Structures are given as C-alpha cells and as structure tokens.
Amino acid sequence: MTNETKAKGCEGCALFFQGASNCSGCPETIAVRTILGVAGRNTVIVNATSCLEIFSSQYPNTSWGVNYIHGAFENTAAIAGGVSLALEKQGREANVIAIAGDGGTLDIGLQALSGMLERGEKVCYICLDNEAYMNTGVQRSSATPFGASTTTSPSGSVKPGNLTMKKSIVDIVAAHHIPYIATATVGHVDDLKAKVAKALKKENQPSFIHVLNPCPLGWRFDSWRTVEMARLAVDTGMWILFESEKGKMKITKEVVERKPVEEYLKAQGRFSHLFKPENNHIIKKIQEHMDSEWERTNKMCSE
Amino acid sequence: MDTHIIERLSEIIADGEMDAKYVNVESEHSAMSVCLGAQATGVRTFTASSSQGLALMYEMLYIVSGMRLPVVMVNANRALSAPLNIWNDWSDSFGARDSGWIQLYCESAQEALDTVIQAYKIAEDARVRLPVMVCIDGFFLSHVYEPVDIPDAQAVGKFLPKFAGPVIDFDKPVSQGMWAGPECYQDFKKEQNDAMIRAMEVIHEINKEFKEQFGRGYGNGFIETYNMENAKYALITMGSLAGTAKHVIRENKIHDVGLIRIKSFRPFPFAEIKKAIKDVHALGVLEKNLSPGLGGALCHEVRGMVKTKNVSSFIGGLGGRDVKIDDFMKIFDDIRHEKKELVWV
Ligand SMILES: Cc1ncc(C[n+]2csc(CCOP(=O)(O)OP(=O)(O)O)c2C)c(N)n1
Ligand SMILES: [Mg+2]
User: Fold this and answer.
1) Domain co-membership, B29 together with B84
2) Cα–Cα distance measured from residue A268 to residue A226, given in angstroms and rounded to the nearest whole number
3) Do the chains contact at B60 and A81, CB–CB below 8 Å?
4) CB–CB contact A90 B173 (8 Å)
C-alpha cells in the first residue's frame, strides 16, 4: 500500500489510512492518528495482538503508513526494545512506539513491560485501555473496573459482575522510576498530543502513556458517544488525567466539580445491573474507591 | 548450558572485542522477542537457550520463522521437567521440531563453533531466510574442554560478509507480522516448507565452501557416514552419541556396522539417508528423545521412509543417563538380530 490516502485536517490520517475494519465508534483510530500525527513518518510501531492489530493488518492490506511490526500478545515491550536497540546500533534516529491493549499490558504483558522499563530502553509504550479483552469477545482483564459485566465476569443472580478493582498499572510502572508517565483519553486529544510529544523525547524514555479507550461494543453504549464517554470518565473522577515528568507529578486537567460516578455508570450497559436496588452498595463502593483515588492522586501531585 | 555461551559473550562485548548490543532480558520469551524486533530492522541477532528456557520461547519460535527472520540461536540440549532435571537429552529441541527452524545437531565443540558461523550464512541466504537452531548436547558439548580452532575474524568476515538482508526503510514503510486468513495462511506455510527444502542445497553448498576455506567439513552438510563402506548394518543417531559410536566401532574393529550421523534434523535429509542405507540389511536408530505413546520420534521418521528393512528403536540417555561403550555393543547386536521391540538403553 502507498501513502497516497490522505484525509483533511489530521496529520496522522496520512499515516493510518481509511478502510480499517474496526467497529463504528471505535476509539482506536482517534488514538492512533493522534499518536502518529505527533510522531510522524520516522516511526516504528510495535503492536500487540489486539483489536488494533486485527483491524489494521490483515494480509495483504495494511492501514499503516509507517513501519509496523506485530509479534505476539505479551511481548510488545520486548520486541520494541529489540527494535530500538537495533536502530541505535545502526545509528538511525526514529521513534519506537509500542502499542498494546490492557490485556497485553496489565495482564500477560506485564513481565515484558517490566523488563523493558527496567533495562531503560528507548521506547514509548502506549497502552490502549478498553478495560477488557475486546478482540476476543469482551473477556475481563485486570483493567476491568469493579462491577462491570463482561463475558467472563457476567452479572448474575448472585454475582454483580467483576469483583476486583482495576489494577493500577501506572503505580506499577512508576515503581520502575522511568522519566515520563502519563494518563490520557481519546476524548482529550490536545492533552494526548502534548503527552505523546513529551513521551517521544529520547531523554524521557522509556515512557509510558495509559490511554482510556471507551469501547462502544464492550461497554455497551451508542457508537456516537465514544468521546463523550471518555470525557465523562474524567468529569466523574473515574479517570484522572495527570503526568509525571522526571518524578514531578501534576494533574493536567483539573476537574473543579466532580460529577457523581453514577452518571458514568448509568451511561453504559456493562454497569446496568448495578442500578438494581440490591446492588446499590456497589455503586457506593465504586464512589468511595474513586474518592480515595482522587485524594491519593491529588496528594501525590501536590508533593 | 546456554549460560556459558551468554556469559562469555558478555565478556567479549564488555572488553570491546565485539561491537554488539547485549541485552539482559528477564525471560527467554523476551530474549526471542528482542531478537525478533532487532532482526526485523535488519541486523544480525543471536541468543542461546536450553530446556525450560526453550520451552518458554516456544511461541516465539514459530513467529520468528513465520516472519522469515534469519535469527540464529544455540540450544544446549537438555531434558524437560518434570521431574526437574538439568542434564542432557533432546526433548527440548524435539518439541520445537515443527516450529519452522532449521535444526543442526553437532558432534563436537569444534563443529558447534563452525556450525554457528555457517548458520548465519544459511539463514540469510535469499533462497532460505529461515532461522537456524544449532543444537549441542548439554554438558557433553556445552561443558567440555577440548581444543578448538578459532578461525580469525578476517577469514570469517570473508566467508560471512556483513548482513545484506532487508533493512527497515522509513520512506518505504512495511508491515511485518500481519495476520492471514484461511485464503492465504496455508500459502505462507507452503512457502516456508519450500524454503526448508531449498535449504538442503544451501546447507550442502555452505558446508563445502566452509571446508574449502577452513579445511573442515561435516559430511555433506546434513549427514555424515562412518564405517559404512562394507557395512551390513547401520546405526543412525545424532549429536555427541556419534562420537562414542565411532569410538566403539574403531576400538573394536567392527566391520559390519556403520554409523550415519544426522546433522540436519530439519530439513530432514530423506534422500541422503536412503542412499546411505541402500546396501544394509537392517538398521537401528538411537535417540535421546521420547514421544510418549509413539516411542522415539527420530526412529519413527526413519521408519516412515524405510519400508523393506527392519529398523530397531533405541531410546537412551534421557535426563543425562550415560550411554556407555557396552551399551553400544549391545545395540549393535540388537540391530544385527533385527530387534523389533523398543529398547530402553
Ligand atoms: C498467549 C496468547 N493468549 C491468548 C491469545 C488470544 N488473544 C489475542 S488478543 C487477546 C486479548 C487482547 O486484549 P487486549 O490486550 O485488552 O486488547 P484488545 O483486544 O482489547 O484491543 C487474546 C486473549 C493470544 N494471541 N496469545
Ligand atoms: Mg482491551
């Protein structure tokens, strides 16, 4: 495929073509085009097995106008490390960006991620978090929030969906003392752009960006509400936008008046069972958890 | 096992004798993944593993060969758990038999060294472009001290010039490691198999070329025969077992039994083996591998191509058990008597 396909108004569009087979309302095109718009042509994308990989790289077609490598599900960080070191060895300057899903990062890819971060390889690692294994049919991952119904944590007559709190990957990543860590969403594109630009600076690498990617199919909301859902996550405190640069942490989007988490939960089918009277305590628990996370993050940012 | 290789390499690189990036990975799975990423940009890569490590790498072996990346690795053959056992047999690399890697088994430390040099040339040949696994018997080869002639770097450079395979190009981006549906997946696999078959001639050529330049060759590159001139019987084996077999034949002045050492297990040298056993009455296969429920996998492959002669099957040396001189004498007798049942040595 050539790079001829160009759409107006988006730098990343020339590098990630039209015609990918993702669902309508899929946030991943927004994320990828935003990332590529900043990164440009001199980029190698290393992608985990995931929705993105499936809808962008079916032989003989490709959506990628930059060099693209897919290896497996759990080793994106290691492959990207190899790419980065080999390019360095050849004396070539390029962005090496690893992109993996929440399963490929928080679950099966955690070890390879830790290894790459610990070795300090020059990689920008971006986790596109849609809070479940979406490409294989909405199975729960350790990024699935408390109370969410998935195909492996269904809401039933005795179990109200997923019974564990979302794993805090940024805390785990932070324990590696890497120079740059950020959270982002596809509903805050300028914020994402600024963060990608920082994360691509070699002196900031390895860097890590955790992007919330609301998935209409898995979360069960109408496909035109993707961006709204990402913004609602931030406005309700279900997702906090911050960055940590060389140990200095700061909130990048202040939310003056947080909306109650109910507003976020009731907008998505995966939480609909929580609104039965007997599950009221779960919503309360989620609110309490988010409150404490809010406090914890703000405290860290004021230190 | 593999650790000696990796430790020594780290010293060579630390002393600046070799200009390479050395990556201390957290697992063998990541080791092969780093090789994948690096190789995909257009450089040479190497890793070494063994036993559980190779088992952990298993997934990536298929992906690297399927992506047609000419990675070279050494596997120090060792048993697989359970029970936990750190000693030699071939279970690890036999498990990866169908992973699409060329597998070359060595008899001596010298051959191991020479084969690694050849491996890059085989792997990178445009007719092949497949990864190569150089298999050496754990402990028997990985931990022996024996004199080895190390060819000088210039001579090796002449034999194996700088990497000339595809290099990543930012003006002509490509997608690697794509997925393929039922309409074309099989075609990729057929191409891999065709490349394996073409590798036969390449292995042969490179063995010859190496011999011309360095004075050392290993049979015709895929099998080596010993004492086969007047042999009525043949023993087929691989790796360091062949060294002992040769010793037993020589010391006991045995005339009726010859040895066929398979060096290239993948691609499997059917025609060459057939030619070598043409005049024997019966043969036997001795191997350090077990496919439970089937028996010896190597023997099974040989039996598949030899319909008219008895092929006795011997499994020995599992988990590092010694196969001794007396054992060979008994094996030769069993071959002569056309033993039918599987023999545990
Ligand atoms: C070792 C291994 N286990 C399972 C799979 C099947 N598999 C492929 S992608 C995937 C889930 C991906 O989930 P995630 O990383 O969250 O990405 P998403 O599909 O949501 O984009 C699974 C289970 C695999 N390819 N490899
Ligand atoms: Mg996911």
Assistant:
1) yes
2) 11
3) no
4) no
Which ligand lies nearest the alpha carbon of A27?
1
Rounded distance between C-alpha atoms, residue B47 and residue B52, angstroms: 15
Residue whose pair of structure tokens reads 């033993």 in the numeric block: B339
Residues in A closer than 8 angstroms to B70, CB to CB, are none
Proximal ligand: closest to the CA of A106: 1
pLDDT of residue A10: 76
Q: State whether B193 and B272 are in the same domain.
A: no
- B267: domain CATH number is 3.40.50.920
Q: Which atom of ligand 1 sits closest to the CA of residue A52?
A: 21
Annotate A216-237 with b (16+ C-beta within 10 A) or e (fewer). Answer: bbbbbbeeebbbebbbbbbbbb
CA B36 to chain CA centroid, nearest Å? 20
> Number of structural domains, chain B?
2
Helix (H) or strand (E) holding B208: helix B185-214
Of B194, B214, B234, the last residue of a domain is B214
User: Does domain A11-302 fall into CATH 2.40.110.10?
Assistant: no
The domains of chain A are located at 11-302
From chain A residues 24-43, the ones with a CB under 8 A of any chain B CB are 41-43
- Identity of the residue numbered B105: Y
> Atom 2, ligand 1: which residue's CA is nearest?
A73
pLDDT number for residue A7: 46
For residue A133, the ligand 1 atom closest to its alpha carbon is 13
Q: Which residue of A has its CA nearest to B163?
A: A90
A270 near B CB under 8 A: no
* Subunit contact A112:B29, Cβ cutoff 8 A: yes
Residues B177 and B60 in one domain: yes
C-alpha to C-alpha distance for A259 and A278, rounded to whole angstroms: 23
| Contact between A89 and B184 using a beta-carbon 8 Å cutoff | no
Maximum Cα interatomic distance, chain A, rounded to a whole number of Å: 63
Residues B238 and B205 both lie in one domain: no
Distance of alpha carbon B51 from alpha carbon B2, whole angstroms: 9
Atom of ligand 1 nearest to the CA of A128: 21
Residues of chain A neighbouring B177 (CB-CB closer than 8 A): 57, 69-71
Q: Which domain holds residue B134?
A: 3-214
**Same structural domain for residues B278 and B338?**
yes
Nearest residue in B to A80, CA atom: B37
The residue from B182, B214, B246 where one domain ends is: B214
pLDDT tens-digit profile, chain A (303 residues): 344 444 455 778 899 999 999 999 999 999 999 999 999 999 999 999 999 999 999 999 999 999 999 999 999 999 999 999 999 999 999 999 999 999 999 999 999 999 999 999 999 999 999 999 999 999 999 999 999 999 999 999 999 999 999 999 999 999 999 999 999 999 999 999 999 999 999 999 999 999 999 999 999 999 999 999 999 999 999 999 999 999 899 999 999 999 999 999 999 999 999 999 999 999 999 999 999 999 999 999 998
Report ipTM (2 d.p.).
Answer: 0.96
CA angle B45–A180–A169, rounded 5-degree value: 85
